[in-house]
């Protein structure tokens, strides 16, 4: 079956975390007008679709992933008029905008919840999950993604409500048709404004296992996959949303997929499924998360990463689609996590760019990654803002982990690594804000910033830009098949993309060592490499190369 061609397969996503992107009014928080100021920067990079993390009204318990009004823009980001101006400006530049929507839960300050909490017989009571306790405690032993019980007790009614994230993020009850109807009305409102699609936050969690039985699974990743995600009605709900609203617009949808595995992936994104266009699966992103999650790290290596990429290619085949990414607002900077942000920061950042832009799937680039921005290492827990980090700091240090050890884990795996403000130049606050930024900057903005990088033709930025231009032109990289070329060293990832006309050979040495690769280069011409040297079969540390040839 020939793979079907779609614009959202050919284009590239650029994620903006608005709080940290660009502050136009000096309050230390990025805003919509700040994004408008930088649209040419984004356009010139060569990306196509902007994924905007939530900008709706929110108490910011989880930086906007706790929405208190789906129909209004948070004043710290601007007004609805500012949003309309942004959308028009994005379209005028030939770009698209997808909005991040959070429908698994709302904020506890949303009117639905404040009503629901008023009394047991309130009409909004079953917009959420309320349960009596058991044996003087919560209804079951479910834990929140962000530490502690997934249930919060309400004195007034002596019942508990479910929150798989913070207690200020109560889970919406999708079993209730009124909830679904209200959600579809929100979806239609934003689509009628002319946006180009949605990123759907934790969409596999919206169907709960209604027996709410205890779990005895030891590892939290297994609880996510087998207890919280892929519930009995998840596909019915997503398909209903598709058929009620989504299918009537030429848009794209990408589901964030904690707990979606290669066994369940096609159920969400199969072309015949009438559900989602693609998913951000998290198999590679959850690598290293031990039994108690990311701050209880376990070792992993590139063998694990490559197996996941190989398995997902085989799973999707020509029947489904995924996004290809190595960082976003929830995970560390890719050059620090998967590359070498010390001796080989530039080389490894370029190698990872080549991987993202040459695998089959819609690439997604997180703001600042195109500059080679790296993790931050704040020396005090007080400098961290992420609720996940703060909650787990309390939990882990209360159960015996030394604060210094926890801080080391935060340096490796904390979400604030990637949420420090963008580096625009080497001026005060890296040009992000004239006020006091909501979170400290990474002090390396003197060395890594857009102004510096844009003045260097050999920078990571131009490597992304040139590869993005090449990818747009080369349909073989978008629709072509993919196969690994086995190598003598585990440190190499060598693969081919091919169709009836061309073949593109990608060679990645994801190590600090030199290696010889096995490939017959006779029928290829070298198009890209991150070292300036002759094209022998010897690879330098973190060397990447892309060759193109006829597929005769
Ligand atoms: O993330 C949910 C998720 O599965 C993880 O990425 C999670 O954030 C955690 O870091 C894993 O250890 C989504 C959003 O991307 C995240 O920003 C929100 O905090 C979360 O849902 C709740 O809305």
Q: What is the compact description of this entry?
A:
The chain folds into three domains: 347 residues, Glycosidases (TIM Barrel, Alpha-Beta Barrel), CATH 3.20.20.80; 52 residues, Oligo-1,6-glucosidase, domain 2 (Alpha-Beta Complex); 72 residues, Golgi alpha-mannosidase II (Immunoglobulin-like, Sandwich), CATH 2.60.40.1180. With 552 residues, it is α/β, with parallel strands linked by helices.
What would your notes on this structure say?
This protein is α/β, with parallel strands linked by helices and 552 residues long. The chain folds into three domains: 10-106 and 177-382 and 418-461, TIM Barrel; 111-162, Alpha-Beta Complex (Oligo-1,6-glucosidase, domain 2); 479-550, Golgi alpha-mannosidase II (Immunoglobulin-like, Sandwich). The protein is built from 17 helices and 20 strands. It has helices at 7-10, 32-37, 39-45, 80-92, 111-116, 177-192, 220-228, 234-244, 265-269, 302-316, 334-337, 345-358, 387-398, 403-413, 450-454, 460-473, 475-479; strands at 13-16, 49-52, 56-57, 69-73, 96-101, 130-132, 151-154, 159-162, 197-200, 252-257, 278-281, 323-324, 362-366, 481-484, 492-498, 502-509, 515-516, 524-529, 538-539, 544-550. An eight-stranded parallel sheet has the order 11-10-9-5-2-1-13-12. Helix 9 links the parallel strand 10 and strand 11. The radius of gyration is 23 Å and the shape is globular. 1-O-alpha-D-glucopyranosyl-D-fructose (TEU) binds at residues 62, 65, 102, 145, 165, 201-202, 256, 258, 293-294, 329-330, 388, 415. 1-O-alpha-D-glucopyranosyl-D-fructose (TEU) binds next to loops.
